[in-house]
Every structure is written in structure tokens, then in C-alpha cells.
Amino acid sequence: MNDSGLRRAIARLSLVATVLLAPSVADAQSKPVWDADGSIVVTASRIDNATDVAVTDRAAIERRQASSLLDLLDDVPGVRAFSTGGPAGGSFLSIRGGEPNFTVVLIDGIRLNDPTNSQGGAFDFMLLDPSAVERVEVLRSAASAVHGSDALSGVVQIITRPPTRTGVDAAAQGWIDSNYGGNASANLSGGWGSGGARVSGGYFDSGDGNPAGTLRRSHGLARARQQIGGFSLNAIGLYADTDGTAYPQDSGGPLLANNRQRELRHGSLAVAGLSLTRDRSAVLRPSLSFNRSLQRGDSDSPAIAPGALGGVPATVASTRFERIEAIAAIVGDLGRVTASAGGVFLREDGRSDGFLDVGFPLPTRFARVRTTYSGFAEASAALPAGFSVSGALRYDRQAGNGNWTGRGGIGWSTGVGGPRFNATVTTGYKLPSLFAIGHPLIGNPALQPERSRTVALGMEWPFQQGHASVTLYDNRYNDLIDFDPVAFRLVNRARVGTRGADADVAVRLASEWSLAAAGGYLAIDSPTPLRGRPAWKGNMRLTWERRRWQATAAVRANSAFNDSSIPTGARLTAGHVEADAGIRYTASDHLTLRLTLLNLGDNRSWDAVGTPRPGRSLRLTIVVE
């Protein structure tokens, strides 16, 4: 279900309630699936058969010094990511044209999507501090055969910084921005022969320089590993907390909103996970993982006055969502064949308490529990002449309903240093969110799962001075959930298609110079315009390095895209071009300084109607380790 459908539903609900109850009114590069320390971090496959996975590594995270992972993800070809309303705005992340709630978001293999929110299960990326992240992997195709429900468009896997292997490391870093606040973090890591541990914490304050709102975030993270015989025991614990203010979505933001009162938002995330895995050197590698996550959210949103579209009443909501998941699997190397099989137990418990203010409080309380039992199998085989085939199959069952999903692929490598070609067909499904089936006013318990099919053809070409890749894709989405104003409830009816191409290249130009570029084209077949998805999008970065110095210059651009707001109605938002430049100086083995000039041209274009992008600013970063 998209956000605009929800807004229309709430607006119409307010009108109906007002009319019917007038007397009372008067009164959501491929990488291995195992991390270096042996923990399970499945993104695309349990058998190292990853294709169409883009990676943002630690070097890119340090170079950007971003306040949110959305800034980093927006540089990934095929991904559109931004905040819908300033520092504390909603998170919009679309993989190849899909809705934000069509993507599974994981942290070290632990699910983060929240199906109790009004976004239908999307994740709020503002909860996570980039300083705690080692890398981010993005799978850009349906992945329900591996991850079950929600993976209609793809997967975002956030992998935290692992413990050091030997000795003790301590580090602290911070940045301050001339306009938009600052961030500080510190971590301590120790390693011993058979294990290690890392603890870190951080705090971010956006300051008051952004007219769209404010955000304050704090986090604490602990990771530990220990070898026990031929097994690796890994543990993670995370707590993050945010407080912010923002203009309500679709209100027109600081430039166009008639009501100048801001929405108050608070969110928290607690994650705990434990996994036991056999060392990769073994022929048979059993694994067992157990995790629990708890998310809370509170919002107090003012009314949006009518404009070109109908207004929206004030809303108050408090949500709580708990997820418990246990996964057992075994991977085996059988000559030319690698295979995996296993099962999953998943329990989701969500509840929401709140009301709409339509002149009187109209309750919106609901509570739902959902349990899923799953079985999966996956295999790949190396064939003569550089060919390979792979396949995956998964069955998920919830309360008498079952869902089969699969993936099939074929690959061909022309030889060492030559291009590699691959073709995949995958299917995905997404259960209706707990909000969509449980909301007492517009929810529909009879909703069916949304479904997808992805076809992708790709080429990867590693060469002596760099690498290049290109992927052509075609996605089809069926039974999408939308609001029906006649039935006055959510229904399955929409069908959408997306197709396009993504490409990236990185090349060493000379001993001190390198160039990286990425971009993509997206065409959408939809009965109604989809918001926030430009047809063209790309970025380019030039880097110079010499001894202790590094300088970078980057440019990002996108074409016009469809959008809407209540004050303006549907509109076409102009594209934009934005450039950054930075310089880094490594003063010693323990001190690094970085100076970055963001948005060189002071471009104030909109990602959301009435909310300008942050203007030109200077950011100073200090790293001590």
C-alpha cells in the first residue's frame, strides 16, 4: 500500500465521519554471504551464489560522512533513497521502481521492517548511525526464495563493524557542519586468539539550521565472536533512539504548508541476535541463529489543511512491534554442487494505539499476531566450459495459507579476467502488513499477498585497472494493495511494471587518479503516476591520492519525477544536479582530518514537495584512532 493511498483514505474517512456524526462534531559487485569473522550475513544466497548485489564499503561510508544511510544508498545504481521531509522525515527507498515497503531490510541478518506503521512495513533508516556500519549490500531483485515475505523488489543488508582479530583498538570520530549540526561516535574493540568483541556508541544532532525539522539520535552497539571447536559463536546487541520534528508528509513542507505546526516523532529500535555456525573449511556446515527485535514509535501529527487535495485530520499514534525469528540451515559442498536446506520460525506481534481528530477522537487501535513456518532449499552447480546453474525454492505457511517462491539462474564466465554473464528469474511475495489487515477503519483481513516477478540479464567485467557491470531488468507486480473509496477499505487491485538498465564502472586512470561512475534508466507502467522515481539517475566521482593526501570531487543528478502534495495536487518536480568536493589529510597513524564542501552550487531542489534539499555547507571531520 502506498502512502498517497493511505492519505486519501484518512482524508475521506475524516469527511465521512464529519458528515455522518455531525451532532457529535459540534461537541512501513557480489559479496560472500558469510562475514569475515564467520557470522551469517545472508543477502542474496546461502551458498555464495550472489549476483546483482551492489556493495557500499567502509571507505565510501568514511568518505561521505553522511548523517543517514539514505545518502549512501542513493548512490547505488537502481536505488532511489531520500528523506521525505528533512532530518526526521520518512524514509523513501525504492529499488528499481518498487515501493519502499517492497524491500527487506536486515542488520547482520536480522529483519528490521515494521509492519505496524502506515507505510505498510517500510523501515526508518534514520534510526541507524552510519558510523557503526562496515558495509551495506543491496540485492536488486526479488528474493522471497531466500528471505520469504517482503522481498518483492530486493534486500538491503546492513553489516555492522566486526571485532578486531588481535590486540586492542580504540577510536573516536566526529564531524560538525556549518549549517546542519554534528555527529560524534566512539568504539573499542579487542581480539584474542579464539574471539573478539567490539562496543560502540554515537550521538547525532541535526541542529536547528534546517527549516524542515530537527533530529536527535543516539545508539549503542555490541558485537562479539568466539571460536568453540570447529564452530563460531556470534552475538550482536543494538539499541537506537530518535527524537525529531518534521512537517507531516504531503503537507507541503516548510515552503508550502498552511499549518506551521510540526509533527513530533519518537522512535526506538532494540535488536539482539545469537548465531552458531560451522567453519567454512568443513564440507558440511550446519548453522543455527536466533534473534529478537523490538521497535516502538510515537507520533503526534497536526492536521493538514485542504488545498488542491482534501485535508487530513490530526493523528496520534503509538506503535509497538516485536519480532522473534529462529533459523536452522545446513550447507554442503558436494563436488561441483553446493546445496543448502533449512527451516525458519517467525513470530510477529504488532499493536497500535491512537486516534484521528475529526472534531472528536476516532480510535484507530489494533493488535495482531502472525506466525510463519518456512522451509527452503538452494543449490548451484559448476558445469563445463565456464557455465553454472543455480536454483532456490521456499515455502512459507501462515494460519492455513501457503506461499511458494523460487529463483532460477544461469551464468557463464569467459575465463580469468574476462566478462561474466548471468540471467535470473525470481519471484517474490509480500504479506499484507499488520496495519493493512488490522486497522479498524480501513483495514481488510481478507487481503491477499502482493506478488512480483523479476527477470534480469547482467554482465560483470573485471579488468586490470578496474571493473564494469551492466544489468537489464523487467519487473512485474500484481495484486498490489490500494485504497478503494467505494468500498472504503484497502483492496488488492493494482498492477505495476518497471523495466530499465543499471550500470557502473570504476577505473584507475593513473597511479594517483581513479574514476567511478554509476547510473540507470527506469521506465514505469502504472495506471497512476508513481511518486519519487526519476527516469534517469546517476553519479560520478573523481579521486586523487598521494601519500597522506586524498581529494575527491563528486556530482549527482536525476531527471524530473512525479510527486504530489495536498497544497499542490499532482505535479512534476524538476530534476537536479548537485556537486560535492572534499580533501582528507592523514596527519599520523592516529589522526585523520577531512574537510568537505557539500552542495557546491547551493542547489535547493526538492525531493519532496515544498521541502528543499540542504543548502551549501562546510563539514569538518576528525578521526582519532
Q: How does this model look, in words?
A:
The chain has about 625 residues and is mainly beta. The protein has a single domain, classed as Maltoporin, Chain A. Helices cover about 10% and strands about 60% of the residues. The protein is built from 7 helices and 34 strands. It has a 22-stranded antiparallel barrel. Strand 15 and strand 16 form a beta hairpin. The longest helix is centred in the N-terminal third of the chain and has 18 residues. It is globular, with a radius of gyration of 24 Å.
Short description:
With 625 residues, the protein is mostly beta strands. The protein is built from seven helices and 34 strands. It has one domain: Maltoporin, Chain A (Beta Barrel), CATH 2.40.170.
Number of DSSP E strands = 34
| Proportion of beta-strand residues | over 45%
Mass-distribution shape: globular
Q: Compute the separation of the termini in Å.
A: 46 Å
Q: Based on the structure, what is the oligomeric state of the protein chains?
A: single chain
* CATH-defined superfamily: TonB-dependent receptor, beta-barrel domain
The largest sheet is: 22 strands, antiparallel, barrel
Q: Spans of 5+ residues with little confidence (pLDDT < 50)?
A: 1-34
Could you say what the CATH topology is called?
A: Maltoporin, Chain A
- The count of domains is 1
Topology:
Layout: H1 3-20, H2 22-26, E1 53-56, H3 58-64, H4 69-73, E2 79-83, E3 91-95, E4 103-107, E5 110-111, E6 133-139, H5 144-147, E7 154-160, E8 167-177, E9 182-192, E10 195-205, E11 213-228, E12 231-246, H6 253-256, E13 263-278, E14 284-301, E15 314-334, E16 337-357, E17 361-363, E18 366-382, E19 387-398, E20 401-413, E21 420-430, H7 434-438, E22 450-463, E23 466-484, E24 489-508, E25 513-525, E26 536-546, E27 549-558, E28 561-565, E29 569-573, E30 576-588, E31 591-598, E32 606-608, E33 611-612, E34 617-624
Parallel strand pairs: 4-7
Antiparallel strand pairs: 1-6, 2-3, 4-5, 6-7, 8-9, 8-34, 9-10, 10-11, 11-12, 12-13, 13-14, 14-15, 15-16, 16-17, 16-18, 18-19, 19-20, 20-21, 21-22, 22-23, 23-24, 24-25, 25-26, 26-27, 27-30, 28-29, 30-31, 31-34, 32-33
